[in-house]
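Reviewer 2 asked us to include a model.

Predict the structure of this chain.
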Amino acid sequence: MVGKVLSGGSRGKAASHPTLPEAGTAEHKAAVAALSPADAARLILSLKPKAARALLREMPDALSLALYAEFDPAVRDLLTDAAARDRLGRIVARLPVEEAADLLASAHSDLVAVALADHPQADAVRSAIAHREGSAGAAMRHRFVAAPASWSLADVIADIRENADRIDKLYAVYVLDDDRRLTGYLKLRDLLLLPPETLVGDVMRPDPIAVSADADRGEAVRLAAREQLRVVPVIDAERRVLGVVTAEELIEIGRREAEEDMKIMAGLDPEATAADGPLTILRRRLPWLAGGLFGAGTAALVVGAYEDALTEAAILASLIPIVMSLAGNAGIQASTVTVQAMSSGALWIGDITGRVLRELGGALLNGSIVGLITALAILALGGVADFDRPPALALTAFLTLVLVTVQASVVGGLIPLALDRLKFDPAVATGVFITTSNDVVGVLIFFLIATTIYL
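Predicted model (structure tokens):
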């Protein structure tokens, strides 16, 4: 499959790519036309973008379409110039609605507009693309194997054989009533091991697990992992089966969800790619950098508000980086664990109190140990360095680090839950947001304690 080549071609030792005769010759055209999708993908990814676009223009429509369908969206955008857009439009105009929507679902809006300019059912394709945005219905495939409860297993087997050329992979047979409502399912072992005259309704497994078409695509992945399903049926509000999310799609959804979370955690727009140009980088990264700048500026204002304290005891300035670092790290650790638990379905509403108590206990232990180490270091330095009241400064550092660790851990564990309740992506909590907010609160706690105990 081309997709496997694309995912691994840039790491380790890449597979060798074929060489072509000199461009412009008949041998060159014949060699290009004879390329397999896998060889074509390796060859294109070994070239510079300009040469890759030129080679893509020489390929037959069927081969180009196969590559467009399997290329990562970032690679696809990099290879799509004006000529490629026009050609893609001509190819897409000949595709059925569902295939056109599958191809264009992750493409930029300008490419979609050009590609659909000549499609006879452009509105239907746009509607199908819109339905694909982030939902389980977007990821489903419409072909699946189903049978009524009144059939015998012999009838099911005969029907499967009759339609063998239309079946790609077979994981289960879904049992539907007269209104296409999902009532049960059969495993393949049932077809192989049970007597052929057995009725489907007598041996089907009732209460099948399914996901709503409007549910988030990540819910299909979590459901499949929790119930150990290879495929997940997709139903509407009346439990009518619309399609299935295949094993391949579940893997792809999981990969995309992980990539999006990683980007958000790093303070990046989820749509950011390695192919972004300078203006796109500006648009996608500047808001996050500006948010970090705002948080750092707020922390600077807090420090400036205690200018007199720093003037009176300059030694306090040396502890500010320690406080900010500990606050940010503790918050990120707690929020990351919470986001991971939410993504995997390991965190539920009834466990929120327990989750907070566990974070509180762990933060007290971690903060106490780090605070004690810092306090002992200050006392040791007090014997060789000249600064006032080392014991009072050590106590200030100890209490500050304990409170900052507790505050950052508890807040870091709760903010993803609050964001999820407000319909925001919880992964935002592990990026710039949690780091800068904990920096500000941590510095404020430090100066409040310092002015009370040390000054």
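The first helix runs from residue 2 to 8. Confidence is low (pLDDT under 50) at residues 1-15. We have added this to the supplementary material.
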